[in-house]
Amino acid sequence: MATAEIQLEAPGGKQLPTAASESRAFCLLRARRLNTMAGHALRSMRVQLVSISFASVVMWLGLYILFQQGFHFIHTGLIHVGMRTQFVHAIFNVFFLALTVMLMFSSAIIMYGNLFKTEEVKFLLTTPARPERIVIHKFHEAVFFSCWGFVLLGSPMLIAYGDTALAPWYYYLLLIPFMLAFVLIPAAIGSIGCLLVVRLLPTVRLHALIILGAMVIAAGLYSGWHVLAYQNRNLMTMSWFTDVLTRLEYSEQRLLPSWWLSTGLLEAAHPSHSTTGRPAWLESFYFLAVLGSNAMLLQLILARVAVRCFRVSYSELQGITRSKRNNHVSWIDRVVSLICRPLPATLRMFVIKDLRLFRRDPMQWSQFAIFTSLLLLYFFNVRRFDYAGTLEQWVTVISFLNVAVVGLILSTFTTRFIFPMISLEGRRFWVLGTAPIKRDLVLWGKFWFACVGAIPPCSLLVLASDISLKIVTRLPLVAVIHQVTCWMLCLGLAAMAVGFGARLPNLREPSPSKIAAGFGGTLNLVLSALYIMLIVLLTAVPCFFWTETGWLREINSDQSILFGGTIGLGTPGAVVIGFSLMLILAGCATIVPLRIGIRAFRRLEF
Amino acid sequence: MINIKQVTRTYGTKTAVDGLDLHIPRGELFACLGHNGAGKTTTIKMMVGLLQPTSGIVEIAGFDVVKQAREASLRSGYVPDEPYLYDKLSGREFLQFVAEMYGMPNDVAAKSIDKQIRDFGLGGFVDQLAESYSHGMKQRLVFASALLHDPELLIVDEPMVGLDPRSMRLVKDLLKSRVRNGGTVFMSTHTLAVAEEIADRIGVMSQGRIQFLGTVAELREQLSSDESLEQLFLTLTEEEPANFVS
Lengths: 606, 246
Hints:
The complex is a heterodimer of chains A (606) and B (246). Chain A is mainly α. Chain A contains 24 helices and no strands.
């Protein structure tokens, strides 16, 4: 007690921590947490680590091959080096501009959750930690979450380009600082925007986000339309390239970080083609310096905004009262209730409860909106291609490819939103576990929730694709097969997400995105992709050869395409067999995971 | 030590704290009582800098908690009703982090951490990850972290919730010892027996205002009653216990 008495007598002697020691403390905190998590993962999650690493490597290699083939295609299509570089520059500009917008939004959303919804920040605000230090600490977390996706997507593309363009060694070395400096810029802009929106528009922050999001989606759709609303059938000709370049000009704004990044990287990749007369590597460094200095400046601005806004915003946000909900059933619930009428009343209530929880969680539905926008953008663009005129023999393949795309996007939805549901339910199990209902009902509720949410939109998207490709009028049977395949995909993916979610739950983690990113979620995603591939191939291959040997035979003389017909794949019998096998596989993929999940859920101790 | 001057705090149209005036001198153990929604936690959150008053001033040791939030928090320790711990840090690592946050020199921090580990009996689990702690263990660690920098003021929100009798005794002894040594304690509680046992003064809040301020004896005198604090509280706040016996 001696120390206590001395300090109580001289309270003025206490010193606030210096900025350096505060920074050191936060670095140490992060290092210790990472170290503990890494140690825990290495000790008790080896299988999960190996699986996740394997899946990531496979995905990375797949992307790398895809990009390399793409760049190779451009290289062989465009002999003129300057034109080729200009074309790649335009592609990079668009790609990085799209990433800039996505990173800005994702960072803003992550920062909102990080700063205003976490217990950690609540704790830190009661300590003498500087508000700007807390914001920067959470900002670095947001950058990390944004960055790994960018690295996973961007690095195979950039390395593939380097390989194709025979870039010098320092191009590869510069990739990491370039990507890091770039990613900090949109993340900082998103974070500043988040703080300002909460400070200036605290009561309408969600509305502001929705309006901004709608504007960005509209801009994305417009630019997609602008680029692809083009009927030149002379693909890969000089006039086609020139026209595409003109349409991509909007992304070539020299004040955009995306332009600095793409220009800097291309300078490094082509040492003999510097446009300024200076050595290319030096030119590349200039762009890196521009990116780096802007990233640092934006961090400084973020810190200043945090000093002025953060504490007061936090306080004001706590003071906002939510409007009382009227005691009536909303129209969405009534519609879902109507759709679920064949289900038992208890099950129906589970579906409606999950829907309410989902739509009242901005973190959930905002990510859902981003996924949906991407899907819509894809389908919006698909109909712009003039398949019927230029790629007629591939129309069946493309239509099945669209079914597969719907399935793949749906698998990300089920993994991200359905898989974590059982884990999250575990935290509320005191109410369900003590209610006089069978545990199985909880799982069936999730399953039907997923089906009701997935089947109508997926079915409509596939139908829209078939209408735009004229499958409905020319090949109605194939359109029916598409619909059935789509429903089977929905059932199987929903069952897998629910079943594996119950078999591999993470009852300690409150964040659904972190649950989905864990071992169970990754396994579910990989198995879902495998399931989609098998289901689509089982129907697509016989259908393709059947249409080739039948309806399209008159217009198609490519013998290689007709090879399938010679081994019996082009017969109606093959279509029936493929279709039946697809149904059997879908049945297994629906029943087996659900059974596994139900058994595990019955035994689960909460 | 605590100076709350004409403080009002609103949540939208609802007034949680309404023109509150409260002065708590050094060396006092003050218990803030009141039913749910009376404004106790809002008052505490304003004292620790989580909320800012809509109007009025809150001063801790002479520092305005809005304008000099860091200086004020340097002089106070806070034990919330639902404490936060980093799951992936051990108790010792958490204490080291808190010591850094409060700008404690390494040698002073090391001594203080050892003292808190001894005082709160953390030795058996302080090097385990916090994710494995029971509620009582967490509460003891949070008390240790709040006292690590030896604050002049300890602010405690519902200190007895979920504690076993031994831990409750530990907390009561600790609070009394802080006050004996010249410190100040502001405690919000629903456990009226504890307030009656250890508080120098009590404040009864209702609808954001102080309805009574004084000692338990003064409350008895005011209500002309020799009843327990629980009954006095119910009388004062006009809440009758529900009659479950037909």
